[in-house]
Amino acid sequence: MTAAPGSVGIVQPQRASFGDPLRLSSGATLPAFELMYETYGTLNAERSNAILVCHALNASHHVAGEYAGQPASEGWWDNMVGPGKPVDTARFFAVGVNNLGGCFGSTEPASINPATGKPWGSDFPIVTVEDWVDAQARLADHLGIERFAAVMGGSLGGMQALSWAIRYPERIGNALVIAAAPNLSAQNIAFNEVARAAILTDPDFHDGHYYAYGVKPVRGLRIARMVGHITYISDEQMGEKFGRTLREGLNYSFAPEFEIESYLRYQAEKFSEYFDANTYLRITKALDYFDPALVTGGNLTRALAPASCRFLVISFTTDWRFSPARAREIVKALVDNRRDVSYAEILAPHGHDAFLLDTPQYHAVVRSYLERTLR
Amino acid sequence: MTAAPGSVGIVQPQRASFGDPLRLSSGATLPAFELMYETYGTLNAERSNAILVCHALNASHHVAGEYAGQPASEGWWDNMVGPGKPVDTARFFAVGVNNLGGCFGSTEPASINPATGKPWGSDFPIVTVEDWVDAQARLADHLGIERFAAVMGGSLGGMQALSWAIRYPERIGNALVIAAAPNLSAQNIAFNEVARAAILTDPDFHDGHYYAYGVKPVRGLRIARMVGHITYISDEQMGEKFGRTLREGLNYSFAPEFEIESYLRYQAEKFSEYFDANTYLRITKALDYFDPALVTGGNLTRALAPASCRFLVISFTTDWRFSPARAREIVKALVDNRRDVSYAEILAPHGHDAFLLDTPQYHAVVRSYLERTLR
């Protein structure tokens, strides 16, 4: 079995079960839960080299490597995590985890609700970034990791890293907050609301209990994905990649005519095949709710005061979902608290999705930060 | 009957019937058609003071004034058109027209198809900006207007003004192209495609023949409107107006919690009550198709070469749907052709919707342009 150069190779997901109830932000309690996770590299004897990699909206615990016998099963951040890569698995022990409510094996709306013996469906509680972080902390306990060398993530993953820094300051050495924001803008929330409205009003949604009907609200999920997709890519990148290119010619019908149309439809179709609508609803809510400064009257500096770790904050010039200006709000609040913070604004044409790509300057910043601070 | 100061007062829509077939861009032919229109002010003896006002996506022939016995029935551009207003009806004879395929009384998908005796539904042809302009030219003939002093409009209306200048150079003295673009970007098309996908996949759409089923694809139409609405408002304006303000508090459910959510839902609900889904599909297609430079290999300068009228081009700083950069493409192409063009980039926080508002600088520019060039 020959792995691609720099790949962690064949990996296997693992499952951890937690019997103690988890109290959630909403006030609800999960009596017990499971988390799917993967690890890459080796935890050293001092247990000091662990890096938690948090995922964003549509990803999972499968961060790096591939599954045996499954071609094209590379992890979603395989370019970032592996031997010789910025998160060098020759030095670090990286951990990927599917968040609570996610649809890749962790306890989720499609799981069986012990109270009813049926899938949770819409009875699955709304979970927040803070709930995810609390669940991840339980996983850390399970793995014998008292303190992460770093917690990192892009987009919603970056928000988890930020939340870790506030919530468990003694358990995190560095927070890598990439392509994130201190909270969602009204426009961000508006896009999420369109996505949710599309799912909630799909007749196949059945109030969230569609599992029992043998259907999935794929129409709504496709629309949700299309809306989201547009916000992940910069206007200029979409222009360069698709422009006004036609597939064949004008056909004066509502069939896809422009390349951008068929691209969006194809991506939406693929997404709706593997993603769960109840999960999508909840993850967009977790995004909307994230706002550490809510409890400090909107004062982000005070909200970040508990954080004591070092920070690397990265933004991308053409990211219009979470613009550099939003990242700089985080940086400013950290500087106001006299925290050790590095900030890089990466010139990249791709928009928000840039955090998943391997722009050399971006990867060099992550690499050198980790080399410098974690030796 | 006292009209508000500066209002044209009580108005009445009129209907014009055209018996000659209209050949459309798609190759299809409409055997006959009707157009709803309104006029404001008096056509002078020389018939030289007529201004055609073209509407954008969701408006109509009802540009100014109000309907007898109908409170709050003001026209959509009432702040622009009226006695003493920038389009001063004491001097000008303004004409508003509902475009072909629109859903306010002109021949449209809900009209009876003479070939079947049933509503056209999805058999109604796809119409383009050029088709609208050709139909408007027929209306001009009907009204005895050989040449418009000006053709004006915002957004899609501005595209019609631009098309008039190219298509009927001898019949237009001035083109006022406001908040428009020479064509849609890939991102613009992508947003339209989401809107269409929402309508087309609504089970109540019935392949466009929903009239026969006594239903309307309101779910899809609402989503379409929500997506559109987000693009009409600037991020900063949405932030100032709604921010992250909650209606009551977090309720950890999918009911509207943030003000922006209930605003979007309310607007979408209202829109879905009065607008027709087949019309929405066609108008977004007309937007996507508009591209005068398609026939000149992408060369906008050559595309605009036939235009001989004077131009006023206006853009708004925070318009991210049709940004100032897009308007400047039009200006550049006109300058390259050595045409008489004035350009104003208006500092306005509202985004695309600014073209409907009465920002003083904006209205002053239109007013002084019309006073200067049409005396």
What does this molecule look like?
Two copies of one chain form a homodimer. Chain A is an alpha/beta fold. The first copy, chain A, is 33% helix and 15% strand. Chain A has helices spanning 129-143, 156-167, 186-200, 218-232, 235-241, 259-274, 277-289, 300-304, 324-336, 360-373, and strands spanning 14-18, 22-23, 29-30, 33-40, 50-54, 81-82, 87-88, 93-97, 112-113, 118-119, 150-154, 174-178, 310-316, 341-346. In chain A, the strands form four sheets. Chain A has an eight-stranded mixed sheet, with helices on both faces. In chain A, strands 2-3 form a two-stranded antiparallel ribbon. A two-stranded parallel ribbon of chain A has the order 6-7. In chain A, helix 9 links the parallel strand 13 (310-316) and strand 14 (341-346). In chain A, helix 1 (129-143) crosses helix 2, helix 3 packs antiparallel against helix 7 and helix 4 crosses helix 6 (259-274). At the A-B interface, helix 3, helix 4, helix 5, helix 6 and helix 7 of A face helix 3, helix 4, helix 5, helix 6 and helix 7 of B.
Uncertain stretches of 5 or more adjacent residues of chain A = none
Task: List the quaternary state of the chains.
Answer: homodimer
Please, what is the average pLDDT of chain A?
Answer: 96
Q: What share of residues are in beta strands of chain A?
A: 15-25%
Q: Biggest interface and which pair forms it?
A: A-B, 55 and 55 residues
Radius of gyration of chain A: 20 Å
Shape of chain A: globular
Distance between the termini of chain A: 32 Å
Q: Main sheet of chain A? A: 8 strands, mixed
**For the largest beta sheet of chain A, what order do the strands appear in spatially?**
1-4-8-5-11-12-13-14
Helix content of chain A: 25-40%
**What class, by secondary structure content of chain A?**
alpha/beta
Number of strands of chain A: 14
Instruction: Please write the string of helix (H) and strand (E) elements of chain A.
Output: EEEEEEEEEEHEHEHHHHHHEHEH
Tally of contiguous helical segments of chain A? 10
